[in-house]
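Sanity check. The docking grid for iron/sulfur cluster depends on where the pocket ends up, so I'm generating a full predicted complex first rather than guessing from homology. Inputs follow.
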Amino acid sequence: MSATAEVERKPLTKKELAADKPTWCPGCGDFSVLALYFKLLQNRGLHHEKFATVAGIGCSSRFPYFVQAHGAHYIHGRALPFATGIAVSRQDLDVFVFGGDGDAFSIGGNHFNHCARKNVNLTYCVMDNNVYGLTKKQTSPTSPIGFKSKTDMWGAIDKPINPMQQAISAGATFVARTTHTNPKHLLSMMEAAMDHKGFAFIECLSECTEFYDGAFDSSNPRKGGEFKDIPEDHDPTDENAAYALAEELVPGYFGVYYQISRPTKQDKEAEVNAKFLEKTKGMEDWEILQQNFNKMK
Ligand SMILES: Cc1ncc(C[n+]2csc(CCOP(=O)(O)OP(=O)(O)O)c2C)c(N)n1
Ligand code: SF4
Ligand SMILES: [Mg+2]
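Predicted complex below; grid placement will be based on this.
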């Protein structure tokens, strides 16, 4: 063996992946998502320099604090644009974004739609608890009508958004639902999302035991509910069928609702860059800049 041969690296251990002790309340669904994320990274043998973990603000968005990794706990609702910058400039990385329903669909709703339509190649896992947890129980965009909170003391009156339908109609190319109570399913959805080339969205039902206890019991067999897999004959490339499947109110079905292949933001930018490089072959950078300024006159 030559002296320069690379030392074979072992996959990271959980100890090497875990950072601060999670500060979530006992029983919070977010613990499960974090545990399965560690498993995913270990299963795939990803080392620290090969992935990024990004989030906005919220209980769920505290995620990057608890992972020993590159990434950021960024501004409320702005995790996706930050992550897009990473994903476009460092295409060798696997980029994962985590956050809550408020972060994704209230303040971040605009970014969600644009990231989906641009088909940025990254994985976005929304830990949906149907409430604002961190700020202690306000109505979120996914809270059901009638939900009593500090902002709707007599019960929520506004129609909740449907994350699956919104993702599909905005242009996401991978749309799936899972739940914190089914670790095997959650891991399989994370794996499928990571393997997908394009904007991969997972809605993970993640119970807030403090402010919306029992929100998803009807999908949990241990609480007398039923975990409903997507019907076997569902065609995930059929947009209308996926949209119709998502019509059923939460918790609804679990699995991949929609998955298609479409060029990513990264693919399209690479195409534009290649064309431009060909056109400007042999030119100095300052000459290209001058040419652009001249064109703007
Ligand atoms: C610009 C801005 N507006 C509002 C807040 C207050 N705030 C922090 S987290 C949050 C909502 C959190 O809800 P969600 O995203 O569902 O996360 P959860 O805590 O439920 O996991 C709000 C309104 C903030 N931090 N920054
Ligand atoms: S308030 Fe709710 S979402 Fe936040 S840590 Fe506690 S249980 Fe989890
Ligand atoms: Mg929430």
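Relevant for the grid: The first strand starts at residue 51 and ends at 55.
Also worth noting: The pocket of thiamine diphosphate (ligand 1) is lined by residues 57-60, 76, 99-103, 107, 129, 131-135, 140 (CB under 6 Å).
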